[in-house]
Each structure stands twice: as C-alpha cells, then as structure tokens.
Design a protein that fits this description.
Blueprint lengths: L12 H11 L18 H5 L24 H5 L6 E7 L4 H9 L5 H11 L8 E4 L4 H7 L3 H13 L8 E3 L11 H8 L3 E3 L7 E9 L3 H12 L4 E9 L4
Parallel strand pairs: 1-6, 2-5, 5-6
Antiparallel strand pairs: 3-4
The structure holds zinc ion (ZN) (2 copies).
One zinc ion binds next to helix 3.
Length: 240
C-alpha cells in the first residue's frame, strides 16, 4: 500500500526524492554516504563543532578559559539562569539547521531534540519553543524551534507547551543590527498567556545569535512567574 497521498507518477521527481529521504533516511545529511539509518555518518558526526560544556560560561554558553562566567554575564546577568548549547554555529552544524529551516527536513528536528535531551536531566520542567511571529509561521509552515522542543519533550517525557509564549509583533533579524539596537528590536515583542507559578521552564531554540531575543523572552517568562529558566539551543554563534 502506498503511504503517499498521490501516485508517485504525478508528483515532481524532486518531491518524490525529498519525501523518500524524509521517510526512509539512509544517507548522511551532510556527505550523502550511506548510513543505514542515522541522519549523519560517523565521520560527519565527529566533525561537528562541539562546544565543551566544561569550557563555557554557565550562564550564556560562550566559551571561557576554565568554564567561568564571562565578563558580560558578570556585568549584567541575563534573565535566564543558564544556557546549554551543543555546537558552535559554523560549518557543518549550520548545514544541519539550514536543512531543517529551509529544506523542511523535519526529521532533523527530532534528531536535534534527542541530542539536546541528552544534555538535560528531566526534573519536571516545562518545555517552550522560542515563538515565531504568525507571519513567519505562515511563510515557513512550521516553527523549527517548536519541532525541536517537541522532539526533546517526547524523549524526556516532559510537558511541551507551545502556546504559552507568543510573538506579538515581527522583529528584524538580530544579525542585521548593531549590538545597541538588538535589545530595542525585541523589547515588547513577546507576550505570555499564563501564570507559570514558580515552574522551571526550558526555552528551546535552534540557533542563539546574540541572546537578546532569548533574554527578552526570559524577562517576560519571569514576569509571569517562571521560577527557573534554562535556555537550550542546538547551535550558538560565537564572536570572532
Ligand atoms: Zn557524512
Ligand atoms: Zn556569559
């Protein structure tokens, strides 16, 4: 029995290939070698730019020599309590995020969710995705952070609440702005529709660029009663 909604003959060839790759992943997302199932082959997996947690600022996940707090966090700590990041946002980790966001390879989200789940000890946390504005959601058809958070919640057996936090106005991409403009760009962009009553919240995103959006979300979550906030991202952009 066909699992496709239409006979393959009336679907464009590239779409058939895309669907087959999504349903039966057997070649490495990065190099195309046969993996027999996993998303990446062992050698591409080893090439990912891992951020060693013992040499990161525990608050914002920027590399520091001995894992001490960075100068910025000492001067002005962010509203979240800690940040966890798997990789530096650079080649080839950027290709993985790109495949999810722009090629709609949703299997990547599940895989990222299970990778991130390995870094978190479940203790009754509630998982929330970094929200997308409805306009962007309509364009893309899904929120990549939501898909990752859903996969993570499923792996850890934790509640996933995608509707608690939302974006009430669109913002310009933070990467286009000067550092001084970033906080202003996101100020008042998010709203929370519930009382978190001291809960431990895990805010999930695909990429952390400057941290300004996550910090603004955390400020709003705190105003709505969040007791403890962990920021979890697949990739963290580093300052060079
Ligand atoms: Zn490979
Ligand atoms: Zn820091």
């Amino acid at each position: 029995m066909s699992i496709l909604p239409y006979p393959p003959s009336i679907l464009p060839r590239h779409l058939v290939r895309r669907l087959a790759a999504e349903l039966l992943p057997s070649s490495c997302l990065l190099c195309g070698d046969d993996t027999g199932g996993p998303l990446l082959c062992a050698s591409c997996d080893n090439d990912l730019p891992i951020l060693p947690s013992e040499r990161l600022c525990p608050r914002c996940a920027l590399p520091t020599t001995h894992g001490e707090h960075c100068g910025a966090c000492l001067k002005e700590p962010p509203h979240y309590n800690r940040a966890l990041a798997l990789w530096a946002y650079e080649f080839p980790a950027d290709r993985i995020i790109h495949a999810l966001k722009y090629q709609h390879r949703l299997a990547v989200a599940d895989w990222l969710g299970s990778r991130l789940a390995e870094r978190l000890t479940p203790a009754g946390q509630t998982l929330l995705p970094m929200p997308l504005h409805t306009e962007r959601l309509r364009e893309r058809g899904f929120n990549q952070a939501g898909e990752i958070a859903r996969g993570m919640a499923r792996t850890l057996g934790l509640p996933y609440q995608p509707d608690l936090l939302h974006r009430q106005r669109p913002t310009r991409p933070q990467a286009e702005l000067l550092p001084g403009e970033r906080q202003r760009n996101v100020r008042g962009a998010f709203a929370c529709s519930g009382d978190l009553g001291g809960r431990h919240v895990v805010l999930v995103d695909d990429v952390m660029t400057t941290g300004a959006s996550a910090n603004e979300c955390a400020r709003v979550l705190r105003l709505h009663g969040a007791g403890d906030i962990t920021l979890v991202v697949a990739a963290r952009a580093l300052k060079h």
